[in-house]
Design a protein that fits this description.
Largest sheet: 3 strands, antiparallel
CATH topology of the largest domain: Four Helix Bundle (Hemerythrin (Met), subunit A)
Strand content: under 5%
Number of domains: 2
Structural class: mainly alpha
Helix content: over 70%
Radius of gyration: 19 Å
Number of strands: 3
Oligomer: single chain
Length: 221
């Protein structure tokens, strides 16, 4: 058997990392669930090393824990942890929305509206899992456009990692496709934020976005 080069191991680990992270963020694992290294080896047809490299990277992002004598498990957070996280997240996203309202451009507002048209159409989809996963993707697009309007690279880069944690907390809660059941309410919130940004109303954009993010906590419990 040929031993993979360091570059080859890195590529394999990256493939495992991307796939398992997507599964975590889409709710294919529940909090506290064990992730089998042996099963991943079979699924990806690779040795243990790239699997462990990928899991260590996910552990560094606080999505999984590698527990001696136990293995790898999906990270579990307390209600207090969730409360603190969403409060901090709400303040950051609210600040970005307020900045977006003071840097508004017709082109980016049009892109926000186009994204929400897709979310609106999604509400009628009867496939709950598909609706949840597609909403998660469109939701990221919506907030990335708000970040682009805000024009703060530092806050935007920080927020991207926080969005991973938000999706993780929601989709490992043990509920069936929370984003799918709440798509209509989430869309309504987005529409209100767009209206405030379009009007250049920074205070209202901040207030509405903070409410939107804080309400996400209910999906994660």
């Amino acid at each position: 058997m040929t031993t993979p080069s360091a570059a080859g191991r890195g590529r394999l680990a990256s493939e495992v990392y991307v796939t398992v992270k997507r599964q975590l963020l889409e709710g294919e694992y529940a909090a506290g669930q064990r992730i089998s290294v042996e099963a991943l080896k079979v699924t990806f047809g690779v040795s243990k090393q790239p699997i462990m490299d990928a899991l260590r990277q996910l552990a560094s992002e606080d999505l999984v824990e590698i527990v001696p004598q136990v293995g790898c498990v999906v990270r579990t957070y307390s209600n207090e942890d969730r409360d603190e996280f969403f409060e901090m997240f709400a303040v950051l996203e609210g600040t970005l929305a307020a900045r977006a309202a003071t840097h508004v451009t017709p082109e980016l507002v049009a892109k926000l509206e186009q994204t929400e048209q897709l979310v609106s159409a999604l509400i009628a989809d009867s496939n709950l899992q598909k609706r949840a996963n597609e909403y998660r993707r469109l939701n990221r697009t919506f907030h990335e456009l708000v970040h682009e309007l805000a024009g703060s690279a530092i806050m935007s880069n920080l927020s991207r990692r926080l969005w991973d944690m938000s999706d993780f907390l929601v989709n490992t809660s043990g509920r069936d496709f929370p984003y799918g059941t709440a798509t209509g309410e989430r869309h309504h919130d987005h529409e209100a934020v767009i209206a405030a940004i379009r009007a250049g109303d920074a205070a209202n954009a901040r207030r509405l976005m903070e409410h939107h993010i804080r309400s996400t906590k209910s999906l994660a419990t």
